[in-house]
Protein 1
Amino acid sequence: MLPFTFERAHTVSEALAASAAAAPTPPTSAAFQFIAGGTNMVDYMRLGVARPSRIVDINQIDERSLHLIELGEPQIRLGALVSMSEVEDNAEIGRRCPMLTESLRLAASRQIRNMATLGGNILQRTRCEYFREISWPCNKRNPGSGCSAMEGANRQHAILGVSDACIATYHGDFAQALIALDASVEIAGKAGTRSIRLAELHRQPGNSPDVETNLHQGELITAIILDVPEWATRSKYLKVRDRESYAFALASTAVALDLAGDRVRDVRIGLGGVATVPWRALAAEDTLKDQVFSEALAYKAADAAFSDAKPRQHNAFKVELGKRTLVRALMEVREMKA
Amino acid sequence: MTGTISVATAIPIVGASAPNNQPTPLTRGGGVPVSMHINDHSYQFNVDPRTSLLDLLRDHAGLTGTKKGCDHGQCGACTVLTNGKRTLSCMSFAAMNDGREITTIEGLASGDGNLHPMQQAFIDQDAFQCGYCTPGQIMSGVACVREGHAQNDAEIRDYMSGNICRCAAYPNIVAAVKQARDEMEKA
């Protein structure tokens, strides 16, 4: 690991002041990084993928709002420094929105969930093995060097949101439940506080896979804000993977369903394991809305969700697996008591 | 809180870290001052920022019970309790743990000569072979029970899935967690 200086920020202002002094660099090769739980950052630093020369620890920021779960009706505000396990254990959230709880419980391991913060979790970087191993060409790590996954071992890679430069999967689970609910992210920067939709936070790879988010240099996520409708009690996070636990998704889905009898009043769908960014399946939602629910309709929605899929040699199975995962989740959610 | 280092502590490789004494830094360049309580002793260190909590425990505090299995947060052998919650000590820089309470396998037994119920259960249920994952399994198991996540076999397997055992002692680990759970709930 390359040497770095280590400092602790005790307030948001201190954190922002520290980052303001940093020279602008593309985020993936940023010389300056915040660190919270460390479960992603320490890993990438040890691999030599992330090489910051300056780290600012934000765990001791004393503004309470970053450490709180605030439960309103319908709005829930989650501080960015709240741990994954704290939200996982929150019974009220589990009652109001099971897919939020499950998207946390099925992620990583309990040890990691105790350490990892919500802000860090949604910013997690890809597990693409070529990205993680610095001897391979990688357009995300080293723009213009090429993508080793395109013609390589790409079983885990994405089929949605891909480009000719990069097919790395966004592996996070929590963000799928969040994006299904059209969550927002509150951001502190030197120009003040701003709020953007989570759907606007992550960038698809396009021509610049090294630019992963629309955060400006030195900005700090302070909270995640979501409106949880009453009918979100009928929701689920289904995760399909090689093992029953402690593995990333091959395909996953966060589904919330608002049924009036047999008719779909509203539906929200997030797809994990198959896309380069957190993925809201709007075409699938549109297929379902105002229709009478049936398995056939669920398959029609799944077809719509994956109609633009671009499979490679080893991940083509994800098209069918992704569809069936969505259908199964819809069928199971339909059986839930409202 | 301060006192003699327990007999079980090995001689530290890096400087002397007796409670409240400054260790001798062996790293070139600046170090970060870090204070923490480890197993009810106060420690003060001055370390290279790259030092993981795991390396601090093993090489600076001389507590080699916590093991380095993968150093990438994937095996759980390095599991300790941080402020009472189970964490992976390899995935945290030592400097991030300033002011925290760390419990390692060495700090689990009550000091009256008896093993912690989880340690005893691992012996009774033959829940280890090579023993390398074992300190991490035990720490994780203690936390699993305290979290209330040891209600049944399926839940134990799910909530212990962050600890890998290449000797595949899993069935006996599950049995040990259940035995310890029953003991711990009596207390």
Protein 2
Amino acid sequence: MAITYSPIMTTTLGSSQQSITLSSIPATYTHLRLKCVTQATVGGISVQFRLNGDTGTNYNDMNINGNGTVATSSVYSGNTYCNFTWGAAIATGSNWGTNFLDIINYNSGYNKVMISRSGSVTNGTSFATHSWSSGSVVNSIYIQTYSDAFSIGSTFTLYGILKA
Amino acid sequence: MAITNPPIGNLAAGGLAPLAPTIGTATAGDTQATVAFTAPSWVGKGTGTVTYTATSSPGGFTGTATSSPITVTGLTNGTAYTFTVTATTSYGVTGASSAASNSITPAAQGSYESIATITVSSDTPSITFNSIPNTYKHLQIIGMAKNSEFYTASASCSATFNGDTGSNYNGHYGYTNGTITIGGSASSWSNMYIMEGVPRNYAGAAYSGLIWDILDYADTNKWKTSYAQSGYPNTYMMYASNLWRSTSAVSSITITAYGGFNHVAGSFFALYGIKG
């Protein structure tokens, strides 16, 4: 029986850097699930991602965000990246930001629809849906901080999920 | 002297060797792998059964079959392997090896297993997962959907358990189009609101995504709690928590398209069991 939920790759930063790329993603799964635990050298900022190195205006976001005081919603169309709002916690103590991204049917010929949850206890929480206007199979994920850099120890793990 | 079994092609009694198979995709399992391949156009002399052998590198572990795929057992979990495939005729003549397969790493089965997937091939008003085993702790559905209706901004999907269409569901939800945010609740619905932002049928290649978690679904001491997240950024997105006021184990799940319309082709829902 094939393994339904398998780790594909994981990266833990040994030095701070502004971005990482998860590349050579096999096309043999049905969905991808990305889990990130991150800090940024400044912190409290968004984590952004692109697929297949596409820097065109092909990304759309819609999100609901809460910072413990107010809840807001927003929509972005025709961006050059997608956002994990508040996905990177400020690098103080043991606070880390979390980012979960599901890329549904990533190896299909349809536009890619994604669902994410992100946030950190120091800044806020966000739930979002994203899309990438491309029928290409996802073969790489580029992840960057909005500004400054990911701290040492930030971890990025990609899983593949099969369907029956 | 009578000639029996005349050689074909050359003087070897078994005839020409088969051509190399075309390697397919290798898939990892628990201490094993499944290797797919395509048979060569020439499989050698005779009409007897051709046997295909997959061989691992490293280790030289083998498996045989008369058609694709081949299962190779005895592998070590955590070790990466590639595989080649050869064809052997009924005369015992083995041909050239295929190219090497993709690399796989066997591992023990985890706690997340695929139960069933329903892919819509033509418009249908609802889909149903039946005979759901009660051997897991939780269920998760990953899906994407488009609605056949043409006129509203976006459509939704609702769900019922075990065919129950009585007023036995509670729900609490919030949804947004990025500009306005709406929340609501109800204590006597006849179904569960699980999906929003389902694009209209003419919205190109766009489908709404769904992650729906159903917790303790087989616990006969509890009402059934679930949490759904869904949406598409050009329409709406939604989160909802739902309650089915029944202690029955969930054995079937029906997901229905909005307003008497249909899930269109390309919509699919994949059901997973999560152990705990």
Protein 3
Amino acid sequence: MIELKLAKSAMEHEEGLNHLWLRFVDDAIAEKTDSVQVSFRLPEGVLRLHNLNGFPEDRDGAIRLEAPLRGKDIVIEMYTLDTAPCGLWDVSAVLEYRDGVGALRKYEQTIPMALVSEGEMQDIVVDEEVVRRVTSMRPSSSERWEFVRIPPMFLEHKEMSSWEKKYRIDCVDNSKNMSRT
Amino acid sequence: MNTYTAQQLTELLQQDDPEMNVRTVRYYSQIGIVPPLVTVGNKRVYSDDHLHYFRAVMTLSKTGETLASIQDMLSGLKMDEIIRIGNKLSMVQNHVFLRNETHQVNEDVFITLSPRISAELQEKVIQAVSQLVKEEKKR
């Protein structure tokens, strides 16, 4: 269905950079659907840029591709900033699509990737095929932005300010204040 | 020979382009965009040659070339040619490119002038260079 490859078998857990290449190798999904949504799950501390192909991404970073899918690919650039936990972690590609009867199907494939210290990068394996693909991509002139998850903030009001008391229509004090103005 | 760590080389390159970062420096070395690190003692380090290569790569990247075509362009070039490409980095920085005006004297000669140069002086520079080119052609 798909093939996942990494440019480097390992990346630095701090200030590291790597590329993931996803390729649709057959039409197993395309035979069942008109489009597929692709999203990626990365290890803790690993961030990514907008896909290098320039495909639009929704606010959750999901990419929608239309059939035919065979031969299409997605390349993403992953990086670490501050120290991410060292170890062998999984990078996942999750495909969601509706089959011929409209049922939502999900397919997930993973590839292991090691996060190591800079000193352990001597013996990494570089996949030249992935490197050729990455280096052949023209710098996108479209917007590229860092994909940053901002958790929602919930503010709890325990006390109302004097202005809130004055102007909120459900506030008991409101009628007194209104009459003064 | 000057040698640098990845961090030191990045700080030098950031003087030319603040967007350069240490992870890109390391990555370009790992995937062969620039030559392999040199071994000094028991450490693998960057040298002045790497500095020149990176500056040349950064210059050509600004023109929209792919990394693969940049690798092809730089392979086989002598170091002085690579240095010459890197020296053009300031000219292709967006803010410089947009700010300055470039005049074409002929197909071989271009003059780039900052708007800080007065119009009168700009005219004199263009006329002087044009005259030199004409005289050269007459020979």
Protein 4
Amino acid sequence: MKINVQSNLYTFIYASVMVILVALGLSWTYLKLKPLQEENRLKEKKQAILASIGVYTTRDSAQILFDKYIVDNFVVDANGDKVDGISAFDVELEKEVKKDIKDRLLPVFIAKKDGQTFYIFPVYGKGLWGPIWGYVALEDDLNTVYGVTFDHKGETPGLGAEIAERWFWEQFKGKKIFDENGNFVSIAVVKGADTKNDPHKVDAISGGTMTSKGLEAMLFDCLQAYVNFINKEKAKTGERWAS
Amino acid sequence: MGKLTKLVTEPLNLNNPITVQILGICSALAVTVKMKPAVVMALSVMFVLAFANVIISLLRNTIPTRIRIIVQLVVIASLVILVDQFLKAYLYDISKQLSVFVGLIITNCIIMGRLEAFALGNKPLPAFLDGIGNAAGYGIILIIVSFFRELLGSGTVWGIQVIPDSWYAAGYQNNGLMILPPMALITIGIIIWIQRGKYKELQGRS
């Protein structure tokens, strides 16, 4: 039997079969691989939190080092009071940032390294092409940045994507999020200014202005929510904190 | 054997997909800001192009002409998505680099172009080699363009700083225009100019 490859019936059947096979194939692959992918994603999250305090690890040792350095984690609300019943690791920041600050669940991770305590706050925001996120680690004065990590979904390679590179993170070391009068100012990401000597500014990425501005907005929006928590913590450890 | 070898060597120069066939320009502009993403892209395109070519070649006698473009697109898209999913599960770090490019690979006209022009009318082995050759030709141009764009636009090569600090202190500045797509286009234009000047048989071709 000679099949007429150009006939309408054949074309119709061919297209239908192809679509069904591809859909089945891709769905099956996705379902099979999802657990592995999720595991990788969680490991990567731990890697990022550790990287914000300067502990760079492979994905396999992420869990061990995470348990070693991250000594506590909890969730607070906008007033700075602890919220029970949910683990900081499980909070989905992309959902929280859509809410009003007063309704948000704010995760906090406490790390201890070389005898020092650090507070790690996750941040989430919008880049140019998609979401950007990261972790900001503050020293125990809850003002000076000890380290940061940032990541993105689809920023332009070589431009906005540079926010995921270490050289960009290094800029944030030693910057402060409160000014001398104790007001929250966050950290601005700017072009051309003298950023080396300004404790509240870092250099934007050449050619990656939109991503840089998105990052600046993300820092301000997310860290602002923690101000009440920070003030309450400072009051608790007032004697240790020197401005 | 000579004919098969030519499939790989011709696209490197005299039938280069970017400078002679004028395909794949958009991705060449987007990913050549620095060298590393350019190389990742070139390798990804090589994988997708070679295997898409083989698949379409194997199916070539079964595809109805009217829907051949759709079938090609489905093959390319499925391949790229499958690769992305596998990388996310087994080679997570590489997938982070590739995920950004997924859209760019699917719409890369070199892939559609070669499927139409070659795979549909040739056997799997020649199709495979044609895919490798064209992707290699694409890769060479990407590496050349990204080398200059990174060097002049960022002062680095493969992420390593090359322009000495003393030059910056003396007033040298990175050429910011190099980071933007128009300079990539001009760089490609200059390469085409040099190539046609050297290989006169290419002149007169549109």
